[in-house]
Amino acid sequence: MFLLARKLAPAALIAIFLLAGCATQNTVSRGGFAVLKVNRTLLDNYGYETDVVGNLKGEASYQYSLRHEPNRQSGGRFHIKWRAPKGSTQVRLVLDVRGLTPANETVRDTLSESFADMDGWAEWTTLDIKERQFKRLGEIMAWRVTIYSGDRVMAELPSGNWYLDIRPDTSAK
After folding, report:
1. Most-buried pick from 50, 116, 121, 151 (CB within 10 A)?
2. pTM score, two decimals?
């Protein structure tokens, strides 16, 4: 019995790793295009993400305080790390955002930026949601970043809840 368990242990570990890979977000990457990472932060009334620079703990603490004090929020910022193959032209990075208003209505908005002649390295692009747009969206609940080459989707990375209904279930009590 012990020998059987020892022989099955490596196979079980491999199965666990393969299943864990299946549980990742729905991503699309083709032809050397990829959305690698998306970081979302809030902006304070002065348009800053933090009151300290270079102190990760302080930055996280500041973001925590902004999340819990909506009256100090003036916008949102998305830092997107992505790549396109060298020489790519007509590349467009699109951020779709869904928010939930205090009236429990879903609101959607889109931001985009176009690029020409990519150098093949991973890029960081920052897209800001300004005050009027931010207030209209309410609380940002879900997002999706898509890379287009011409009219063709080449890469996509959605938030974990992009394909779900973001409104809270009010029938359950």
Report:
1. 50
2. 0.78
